[in-house]
Design brief:
Length: about 425
């Protein structure tokens, strides 16, 4: 056989094996445009500016965060009611905990009783909703800082705000770069920490609920890699520079209280993945020391164009899922294997439905992913007649075959 024919055959086999190894994620919710159920009047709503960015899942609610990256967003923290259905189309959003808390003051005066802008909330193992209110309205790059960023904790049983902690100015000047939060619960009292990546200042903020104190860790691995910032998505080319973006907690270790874990993290502009033990993060002395020795580890490279917004660990399988924005895809890596490109597998890819996977989270044994086509909204325009915003829900077990396939596929080639 000629070399060309052989390569064609290999290529064909490759694509066959490849396609049979990906799955189609199940749509759980989709919207053409986002509408609100409980607005007193339509006054300050500009429909086309309402782009959801993150979500969180509780027993009976799916929280939807619409950060104020534009004017005309009446409510930033919202939810839809879950009633056991397997699919929702264009459900209207309810403000959470209520509209008054989300409503801006007429001339944007600071007000600690308000929630200004939320990106990616999370529900912890103790039925509490956590999020960062950035305190900023970022309108087409014109950032209006209303007030200091604050960490919120809400008890979902009573809908009461049990904590609002203002992050002090010496840790971060404003909340523009605080787009996600990861919760480390040790018990369901106050023994919990929040880890917050600061994508603008390339630092990690750490908050102890028990001590009601925040401090910051700085490290060069929190910065973006200047050679890995190019994007080509949905026909649009651009370059970004975001630093540390997502933190996910791995397997609990066998220390005395059994609660330390590796915190996996990556800058958005990077193909690499890193880790640091929560033993360091939880200890203010260790987290804030200026020389970090071997505290932070480079785990390896995930592969070309693998820039990721959020990632999330599933404890029973040891798998981490990644929302890959440059490929309109979701990938996985089994942490029991070394991190290299051949051990990172695309499990789902869709050049229409998965454009800009903005949030991803493993909740119990389900993988949840949100996509929002934000790229079109920033660099082009969204078509209000299309379904633009989606949340997918897939049992982890349905992804295992696709996730395991990597090694065998690659082995075939090596032979
Ligand atoms: C602020 O908005 C501009 C324009 O939409 C965007 O490029 C920038 O990334 C935003 N900043 C943050 C921190 O989200
Ligand atoms: C920036 O946004 C604020 C409100 O968010 C507005 O008052 C101000 O006029 C804007 N500035 C520019 C230059 O667009
Ligand atoms: C934090 O680490 C320092 C240095 O290793 C140690 O002396 C101290 O006891 C630790 N603090 C806590 C609360 O574990
Ligand atoms: C895939 O790998 C996981 C973890 O190693 C294992 O538990 C599971 O049985 C495998 N599943 C399939 C379908 O191959």
């Amino acid at each position: 056989m000629s070399l060309t024919k052989t390569s064609t055959l290999v290529l064909l086999l490759f694509s066959l094996t490849f396609s049979s190894c990906t799955i189609t994620l199940k749509e759980f919710v989709k919207w053409k445009q986002i509408e609100f159920a409980d607005l007193p009047e339509k006054g300050n709503l500009i429909q086309k500016n309402v782009v959801p960015q993150g979500f969180a899942v509780s027993k009976d609610k799916l929280f939807i965060a619409v950060p104020r990256r534009n004017i005309g967003i009446p409510s930033t923290l919202n939810y839809i009611k879950l009633d056991g259905r397997e699919f929702y189309e264009n459900p209207k959003l309810y403000s959470y905990p209520n509209y008054e808390t989300n409503e801006l003051n007429p001339s944007n005066e600071a007000n600690a009783n308000k929630i200004i802008s939320v990106y990616r909330p999370r529900v912890d193992e103790c039925n509490r909703l956590w999020f960062v209110d950035s305190g900023v309205i970022n309108t087409s790059g014109n950032a209006t800082v209303l007030q200091a960023p604050a960490i919120f904790v809400i008890d979902l049983a009573t809908d009461a705000i049990i904590k609002r902690y203002e992050i002090p100015n010496h840790i971060v000047r404003d909340g523009l770069g605080l787009a996600s939060i990861t919760i480390d619960t040790i018990d369901c009292n106050e023994n919990a920490f929040a880890y917050i990546p600061d994508l603008l200042n390339s630092q990690m903020l750490i908050y102890s609920l028990k001590d009601n104190v925040a401090y910051r860790m700085q490290h060069n691995f929190f910065r973006m890699n200047p050679f890995e910032g190019e994007f080509d998505i949905d026909g649009l080319k651009f370059s970004w520079d975001d630093g540390i973006f997502s933190i996910t907690l791995g397997k609990r270790d066998d220390s005395k209280d059994g609660s330390y874990r590796d915190a996996y993290f990556h800058p958005m502009i990077s193909f690499s993945e890193f880790s640091i033990s929560t033993r360091i993060l939880r200890n203010q002395t260790l987290a804030t020391r200026s020389y970090h020795g071997n505290d932070v580890k480079l785990l390896g490279n995930r592969g070309k164009n693998s820039q990721s917004t959020m990632h999330s660990y599933h404890e029973k399988s040891g798998i981490i899922y990644f929302a890959e924005i440059n490929k309109n895809a979701v990938s996985c890596w089994n942490t029991r294997k070394p991190l290299r490109p051949s051990n990172v597998k695309i499990i789902a890819r869709d050049d229409i439905k998965l454009i800009y996977p903005s949030d991803l989270s493993v909740v119990d044994d389900d993988l949840w992913v949100m996509s929002n086509r934000m790229i079109r909204q920033i660099y082009s325009t969204l078509n209000a007649d299309d379904f633009n915003f989606r949340i997918f829900r897939q049992p982890v077990k349905d992804t295992l075959a696709a996730c395991n396939a990597t090694a065998s596929r690659r082995r075939k080639f090596a032979n």
